[in-house]
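ok so I'm stuck.
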Amino acid sequence: MRVAVIGAGIVGVSTAFELAADGHEVVVFERRGSVAAETSFANAGVLAPGSLMPSAAPGMPLKLLGQLFSREGALTLDRLGVWGQIPWLWRWWRACRPAVHATNRAAMLRLARLSQERLTMLTQVLRLDYEHSRGYTVLLRSDRELARARQGLKLLAELGVPFELLDAARARQVEPGLNPETALRAAVHLPHDGVGNCRQFAQQLKTEAVLRGTDFRFGTEVQAVVPGTRPVVVAGGSEHAFDAVVLCSGAATHLLRALKLHLPLAPVWGYAVTAPLRQLEGYPDLGPRSAVFDEKYRVAVTRLGQRVRVAGCSEIGGSAEHYDERALRTLYRVLEDWFPGAFVPTQAQRWKGARPALPDGPPVLGASGAAGVWLNLGHGAAGWTLACGSARVLAEQVAGRAAPLDMTALGIERLR
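replied:
not stuck anymore, here's the structure
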C-alpha cells in the first residue's frame, strides 16, 4: 500500500517506521525542517509506563482551582485564552470521575507496556544509540501522597508492573544525589522504567525508516485531506493520491474540521528547563542517576548524558509566546528542593511546547470514520511513552489485522 503520514513528531516517525517495516510505501509530510521539532523537541524524556495516568483524575479539579491563586503551580490556566477551552474543560471534569479515570488509566497502561516492549526491541535489533537509562523513582513528600500512591499500586500489581515501595532511607540509596534537607516520606521505584532522549531516538528511527524506502518531505504544509477509496493529500500546491492517510499531527486541527472530525483536542502547554550538570570533584552524585518525579508538583527531573532536564506543568489556554512565570518557578523550585546546585544556571535553556491532548487522557487510535483516513494522535504529555506501541497498533489496523491489545477507551467511538 501507498500510505501518507502527516506529522513527523515522535508519533509520526514511529508510525512511518512501522508501516515501512511492514513493506508499505510511505510518504511523510512535515511542516518543520526536521523530525521531532515541536512537541517532541525538549520533553522530559520519561519512559515510565508504571507511573502513567490521565490528567483527568479524582481530586484534580479542586487541585486546579487551588493552584489558580498560588504563586507556584503545576496546573495553570491562561486567564485570557482559557475561555475558548471551556468545552474541553467540561469534558475533562467529567472524566475525573473515579470509574472513568480507572478505565482510562488501564487503557493507557496497556498501551504503554506494549510501547515499552516495542521500544526495547527496536533499540536492540536496530542497535540504536541514544541517551537512555533505567530506573524511575516517584518521590512522595507526605503521608497523604503515600496514601494516594497506594491506591495506584494496586493496579500496577494487577497488571504485573514491577515496582518497589521504598522508605526514605532506601530511596536516597537509589538516588544518592537527593537533598537530605528536603522532607521525604517514601518513594515508589520502577526499575524497568526510565528516561531516554526522545529527539535522538526520533532522528535515528527516521534514518531507519529512510533505509526502508520512506520519503520524508520536510517544510511541506498540508492544506487538506480528501477522504475516499483513494484519499488525497493536498500539499505544496499539488495533490497526492494514497491508499491510506494517517494523521499524526494533533496540532493540525484544520484538517480534522475539514473531515468533519470534531475531536475535543486542546493544546496543553508543557515547560522544560535544560542545563549542563555541574562537575565538582568529590561530589559524583550531583543530579539524578536516571529520573525522579515529584508527586506533589507533578514535575520530573531527568538526566540526559551530562545534562539535567526539569520538565512538567500543564497550562491550558496558553500560547507559545507567553511564559507563565509560576510554571517556571515551580520547575526551579523542584530542582532546587531535590538537587540544589546540580546544574549551571547561566547555561540553562527554557522551552515551552504544545501537547495536543484529549480531555479524558488516552490518545485516539484507528479508523477515523472518514474513508481511507486513520488517526494516531492526542497523546498529550505521554507521546514519548506511548509512541512505539501506538505506531504498532496503527500499522496492524491499516493492514487489516487485529490490534495487538484490548482497544477499550482507545478508539474514536468513545469521543462521540
